[in-house]
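Fold it.
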Amino acid sequence: MTVTYQLTEEEFDYRLFRRIKSQFARRTGSFKIKIEIEENELDETEAIMANPYLFEKIKAGIKSVENGNVISFTPEQFDELVKKHSVHASGI
């Protein structure tokens, strides 16, 4: 039998050990408990959502688009904008 607990740092306390002990209280004989601690890394979306500043920026951007604040152009117009506003290495 394998039991996996996924918990937060706050849940990792003496009560956890009491819960584990009570789960196996009816078993006779010995058993082995193995504890592995694995730090979960946030994916990019979770990291953004966890950052209040970035989350608010995204919400504001969505609201702006919903309100019609959108700039659109063709690929040719984009190329012209790049040519007009790019900094050339030779001019530095």
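Residues 44-86 form one domain.
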